[in-house]
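Q: Got a minute? One more chain.
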Amino acid sequence: MPQHTLSRPGSLALTALAASLMWAAASSAWAQKPPAPPAAAASGAAPAAKPPADPTAPKPFADVIKDAKQQDGYLPVWRKDDKVWLEIPEAVMGQDLMFTANVSQSVGERGLYASQMGPDWVAQFRRVGNTLQLVARNTAYRAGDDAASKASVQQAFSDSLLASAPVASAPHPERKSVLVDASFLLSDILGYSTRIEYAFRLPYGLDRGNSNIEKARADAELTTLNVRMHFATPKMPAPPLTPSPVPMPPPPKTAPDARSFFVGVVYSFAPLPKVAMAPRLADPRLGHFTESFTDFSGDMKPNQRVHYITRWRLEKKDPQAALSEPVKPITYWLDRNIPVRYRAAVEAGVLEWNKAFEKIGFKNAVVAKQQADDADFDTLDATHASIRWFVGADVGFAIGPSKADPRSGEILDADIGMSDVFGRGARRLVVEDLTASSEQRLATLMSNHRAGQTCNYAHEAAGELQMALDLLEARGEVAPDSPEAEAIVQQVIKDTIMHEVGHTLGLKHNFKASTTITREQLRSKSFTEARGISGSVMDYNAYNLSLRGEAPSTLNNTTLGPYDYWAIEYAYKPLDAKNEAAELARIAARSTEPALAFADDADADGPAGVDPTVNRFDLGDDPLAWYQRRLNLSRELWQRVQARTPKAGDDPLRTRRVLSSGFRQLMVMPDLVSKYVGGLYIVRELPGPTQSIYKPVEPARQREALKFITEAFFKVDSFSFRPEFLAQAGPDYVEWDRAGPISIPDTVLQLQTRTLDRLMASGTARRVLDQTSYLAESQRKNALGLAEVYGTLQSAVWAELKGSGEVDRMRRNLQREHLKRVQGLLTRTDPSMPADAVSLVRWHAERLQADLRGALGKPGLSIDTRAHLQESLGRLTESLRATMQRS
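A: Always. Here it is, folded:
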């Protein structure tokens, strides 16, 4: 910055007076003596006077870094005391580079965890006057080679400014590089403040004055800086005098002072590969992550979107050898924070993928290395693919993101984060209180799946592990602290690492793979030990628990499936450029083989989630049979634990945990079973003259699913527990913030309302009405119609009206929830609900009105039942008379 001299008050007047006296003296001397000729007149013209120095010009390079220590590298780093400068070489200025930001330290709750891979950008350093800008390049829209195309795309789509700072020095005399104060990184480049606001809804701001650069590292291929950012808010808001209708998240609970916490970020600058890898186009019949962009290079393409699959650069040392080691293997560094007892399982999960690479000619394509305790690098930098352990107050997931070169799809870095939930799994399992909050957490988890925000395989697998260990313990087969329990935990860790490594190799989820193994094969221990329990490790595979009386089989997945080999072949098989398109088409054409069935997240959820065979955490070729099996397993667990005599020294939360284990298995069933109603089987295949992409689910299967879900969750005797058992389900009295008594009716009602919501949703109605469009005229008579769906549902909910008329409390709760939904459809316009569906709801409501009147005439009804039926009749009658409200 320019230097300014500040004068004392009055100095300006003194200076003016002195100048006036000096001018008078000089004028007197001039008058008394003629001036001598200028000295320069005898020797030629005088040299020009130097212009005054520019106070805004940067200081000389040497002056800025005087006494500073240098780390040479891609961007050399200079450090003196708490000052850090980056040296930006002339060759780097204006050139594309990879800039990444990863989170090394965080709050430890509500989604803000350590060891998480953050965003990345293709960026450039640009100098504008004396300002240095770090600009993120827009790679989502690309031009052709001609000047006009480049100009139009550049004008249409903007780059983004990530950060800027004054140039700190004049160019180096020889290298022509300039310095920039690295404190420009002490800003919220990765947008973490938004994530904090989302988590806590409090005005936390970045406190730059208490943020600092902790360390830096540089070599020829990388420059990394670890920064510690302080976020703070002046005060915690007082709670409202009356509860807010909008639920607000609590302030941070993990920080000693909720007003302040630190976040660690690892920033890396690395050059892009000098020669971009040859890209490989994606095929919709397989699931690979992609680098996608809109191509404006021509106007003759029917689809301007281009998708390059993401994959590591893998080349044979000996291209002629049938089996060769790679020039550079895919290396995963096991971070030093992984507990020693689990490192072997983590390594086994990594190396399992070598089986797929050997099939296409690579030996030791994947390597696992252990980071030494005294290593000087951070595994979150941009040149070390890593696996890191992390902990949190409410955490239980693993994630496997990667970063790729957008020019080609070449994966340049990957950092798998693995929470410690499995390490705790066999000894201190996750406790889920049976309250609305647990349902909200589950709903949040499901919405994250729908948004495709993260891979929650480990989180949900932890619940599966909890159920498995509780049931095996109840059967007397596995003790919590036994070697058998430890072996299960080790295998779960390997399975989870296989899954996440698959993501970092470029593979998406495959939620149809579990259906490629038959129920008979699942019961065969010899088959499952050799082949696994699913067609892919990229599915969310459930635990293969045997039913009561069945011989035990392999519990969880142990090896790669056929789909995994196929997907790796498509992405990594060395191919001659001339024949690549034809060979890839040949590989992808195997998609119709039953063992290679594929469907991703979008097929499992949302508007595209119409195929009942595409799910998470099911097993076998008949998902409906699996759900029936899962219900039986939960009931067996509850029966066995209720028969157990409590002992002194038992975990006080054990009863609650066991109840949670069973109910957790059931919470997703309404979403999954209801997909059969109006469902369509989907075949991933390219268009063809005889190819059918959609096929309606068989009417008999639709009716079977509808009957199963209504009987399983609506009948009174589906969830009966001994009073003595519930009376023993106390809280942990050591904790101040403890849960109250368990309400089984409330928990069951969560299942029931979820079932009602799915069966009465506009999406279900539209599916059922539309499915006849896919049927021949002769097949439509037997199709499941929407009138039958609503009639079956209403009969199951209000079954007492046809019988004695007496209704117990749990059934009254269910009937009120059904009536709420009927009222809503009768009195408020829902633009997404088909008009035929609303008409059918009204038709069935009038039938229900008549049934209620008839039931009220029956003698011997209790006061509770009579009051309930009278209120229901009144509300329904008002709704049928009401004027429709437009929304």
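A: The CA atoms of residues 107 and 550 lie 46 Å apart.
Q: Perfect, thanks.
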